[in-house]
Write a structure and sequence with these properties.
This protein has 489 residues and is of the alpha+beta class. The structure holds adenosine-5'-diphosphate (ADP).
Length: 489
């Protein structure tokens, strides 16, 4: 017995469907064969009866002339059958086997014959118990039933043939069923064996063994399932690796400023320094503390975004002024590397968004552009207007990103090179913040040639509410701090 499971289900279903189909076909076939055999016997007798009747109409008989009756009966006989001549009341006058004279026969063929129709009756013969077919027809004289001509024939041979046919069809049916059974077990095994293997490997994966893989060249959905599970294990290993990298890089990021803070505070506590030296030390402590705060804030932002807890404080924002402010903020950093930042295009789009978060996005992108530009490089910021969207483009001509890495730079904690500092969270956070503004962020890059980041944000529809009234999208509604002039570095 096959134990419960998919294998049993498949085998059982196949078996049942084929069994039912075979049963139906065999029943139809055997019934058709039986009808065919019985009909041909009947029509053979029926055509003989027609001839006999015509003959009778020529030489009418009288029931008291037994010698004549017996003689004429010999003309009516049909090989393979027995002939009886009955009176209209069903009494046998003459019988070709000479046995059943005087018995009264009331089978349906006789009653139908008296009603004017030739019909057959199939059943067991009185006395012998043999299966027979009886076909009767009335012999009439001037419209009156005078005799009933009754032919009976044994059905034993036909039934024996039918029995043989039944046995042969049962044999064929059984061998077809056995083939189907073997085939369905094979099919079920081809599904269940890989499934069991996949299940065993995934159970190991569930226990944390992500180095195991599903081996075997499986086809179709099973192949896809195996490939998906293998891919999942590989991704888990990769994301664990990324997390480990993050922990080591974040520890490094935390350790450097902390070491510097600790060093300078110990130095200052030991005393004996002039005010100028003390000021330098305090400045370093302040800068490093700010770096630490920035780092922690980035991690907090990321965790808020992950838990969908980031709330935007929406308002109207002038993108041009926001970019000018960012250029001002990063001016010193760019200057240190000799990098110039240019704001091209004269567009002054107003959008509806969270000014601080939008600033965070572009600060991160421009900061990356500076970080990965060559010495004395150029960064170009531009604004492209569409009917319902505005796109801010941040383009640098720095080290660029390879095709292999570009897919992953927006992943959390991913960094092409850890020595550049940072957490690898900047782009992941920017991407999510842009999406919160119903926009999109795309990156194009070529290794050694530079990187272009495009942030596409929706423009507000209709009029924008501003303090003290309404403004059209094109107007400059806000007074933001004056940034450096266009094309400034
Ligand atoms: P972080 O800058 O803190 O490392 P980001 O998420 O901002 O994290 O960037 C992830 C990685 O993507 C960076 O470490 C860097 O390898 C790559 N990257 C980002 N921007 C640029 C760029 N403009 N040019 C080259 N590489 C970049």
């Amino acid at each position: 017995m096959i134990k419960k499971g998919i294998r049993r289900q498949i085998v059982l279903h196949y078996f049942l469907v084929v069994f039912m189909a075979l049963l139906l076909v065999e029943i139809i076939f055997l019934v058709a064969m039986r009808t065919y055999y019985y009909d041909s016997v009947y029509s053979h007798i029926d055509s003989h009866i027609k001839v006999a009747n015509e003959y009778y109409q020529k030489y009418r008989l009288s029931d008291d002339n037994t010698a004549q009756l017996t003689e004429i009966m010999s003309y009516f006989e049909l090989t393979g059958t027995e002939l009886q001549l009955l009176t209209p009341s069903g009494q046998v006058l003459i019988s070709s086997n000479n046995f059943d004279t005087d018995t009264v026969i009331k089978t349906s063929d006789v009653t139908q014959a008296l009603a004017g129709e030739t019909s057959r009756w199939v059943g067991k013969q009185q006395g012998t118990g043999q299966m027979i077919m009886a076909v009767s027809s009335a012999l009439q004289n001037s419209g009156e039933n005078q005799f009933v001509l009754r032919y009976t024939t044994s059905l034993d041979k036909i039934n024996e043939k039918l029995l043989n046919l039944t046995l042969v069809s049962i044999l064929i049916g059984t061998s077809v069923l056995a083939t189907v059974l073997a085939f369905s077990i094979g099919l079920a095994n081809s599904i269940v064996k890989p499934l069991n293997n996949i299940r065993a490997v995934s159970a190991q994966m569930a226990k944390g063994r992500f180095d195991v893989r599903i081996k075997g060249n499986y086809k179709y959905e099973l192949g896809e399932l195996a490939a998906t599970l293998n891919f999942m294990a590989q991704e888990i290993i990769r994301s664990n690796q990324v997390k480990d990298d993050f922990i080591s890089s974040i520890s490094h990021e935390l350790r450097t400023p902390l070491t510097s803070i600790k060093g300078w505070s110990e130095t200052l506590i030991s005393g004996g320094y002039d005010p100028e030296e003390t000021k330098v030390g305090m400045q370093i402590i302040t800068n490093e503390t700010e770096r630490l705060i920035g780092l922690v804030e980035e991690i907090l932002d990321f965790s808020k975004l992950q838990q969908n807890e980031m709330k935007l404080v929406m308002g109207i924002v002038s993108l041009r002024e926001l970019l000018q402010e960012i250029m001002l903020n990063l001016w010193a950093k760019a200057e240190k590397k000799g990098v110039s930042i240019k704001l091209e295009s004269e567009e002054k789009p107003i959008i509806y968004g969270d000014a601080n978060r939008l600033k965070q996005i572009f600060l991160n992108l421009v900061d990356n552009a500076i970080k990965f530009s060559h010495e004395n490089g150029v960064i170009v910021l531009s604004i492209e207007m569409e009917e319902k969207f505005v796109t801010v483009v941040v383009q640098d001509f720095g080290i660029g990103i390879s095709e292999e890495h570009i897919q992953r730079v927006k992943d959390r904690f991913f960094q092409v090179n850890h020595v550049n500092g940072g957490t690898g969270l900047g782009l992941a956070i920017s991407q999510q913040l842009v999406e919160l503004h119903h926009g999109s962020m795309d990156m194009e890059s070529e290794l050694g040639k530079g990187t272009t980041v495009k942030v596409r944000l929706p423009l507000p529809e209709g009029k924008i509410p501003i303090a003290g009234g309404f403004s059209e999208g094109e107007e400059e509604p806000m007074a933001l701090p004056q940034g450096p002039s266009d094309n400034d570095s």
